[in-house]
Amino acid sequence: MRIKNLIIALLLISNKVFATHQIPDYLIIGKDTLQIYSNPLELYFKNKKRPKIFNDSCFLTSCWRGYIAYFKVQNDSLFLVDVYDCCQNDKKIELSKILTDRDVKKPIYADWFTGIIMSPSGKLLNYIHMGYGSIYEKEIDYFFKKGILKYKKKHINRIVKSDFRDLNNLKQFFEDRVNWDSVPKIDTLTRVFIRVKADRRGKIIQKNILKSDNELFNKEALRLIEEIDTMPVLIVRENMLINSWTLAVSFDPRKRKK
């Protein structure tokens, strides 16, 4: 299993995979209200029927579960505080309609929850339009067992500095450096597709031609690849999450100097 899948499997509490980026739940710790990439309330419904009231809520692809839950850590214990309608952020859903076997007049201790609540923060490093797949600069894992906070762990994610954070810049980079004397004259656009892989420093360590029609164009394309200093490797939890790309080197006859 790829590292990306392992991380998502670790962070998602529900076994559902959503095709749209999801609105988060929230965790209150001290004076901070943190967005979390976990849905602790879902484990409550593992052996119980989901409330019909969630189905009566408006439909949002960014909130498939039908609610936004707020939890609070107090004296190392996890409590469910409020549940809101996805479409009306100021509309609370009555807890008595959700937790039918609990006295909602008392603090609702989330003893059903064993797992990890992850809170991302800082700069967005890599947006993924699926579930809670986006990667932020900082992540904190809160480990709970039957609603008791056992410990927490901080992670720092990063992107290796590169001139090509936006890989579209590579197109211009290649065009400006083509040695037209080294390739045959052409009348139509020609492309060479190359799969490259980088190490933890962003240095390219592997290059494979995927598609090309001419060996001379291949040779020039590989030479251009050699001029790249570093690629924007994404390191998440000390693992290289993104360290390979398919690059297209274009040879546009209109760019040849006459």
Can you put this structure into words, describing what you see?
This protein is mainly beta and 258 residues long. It has helices at residues 3-11, 41-44, 52-56, 169-175, 215-226; strands at 25-29, 32-36, 67-74, 77-85, 108-109, 115-126, 135-145, 148-156, 158-159, 190-198, 204-211, 234-236, 239-242, 244-251. Strands 2-1-3-4-5 form a five-stranded mixed sheet, with no helix packed on it. Strands 6-7-8 form a three-stranded antiparallel sheet, with no helix packed on it. A three-stranded antiparallel sheet has the order 9-12-13, with no helix packed on it. A hairpin with an 8-residue loop joins strand 6 (115-126) and strand 7.
Summarize this entry quickly:
It contains five helices and 14 strands. It has helices at residues 3-11, 41-44, 52-56, 169-175, 215-226; strands at residues 25-29, 32-36, 67-74, 77-85, 108-109, 115-126, 135-145, 148-156, 158-159, 190-198, 204-211, 234-236, 239-242, 244-251.
Low-pLDDT ranges = 1-15
Biggest sheet, open or closed, and with what strands and sense?
5 strands, mixed
Percentage of residues in DSSP E strands:
35-45%
Overall geometry: elongated
Secondary-structure-derived class: mainly beta
Q: Say how many strands there are.
A: 14
**What's the pLDDT, averaged over the residues?**
88
Number of helical segments with 4 or more residues:
5
Distance between the termini: 51 Å
Question: What is the share of helical residues?
Answer: 10-25%
Radius of gyration: 25 Å
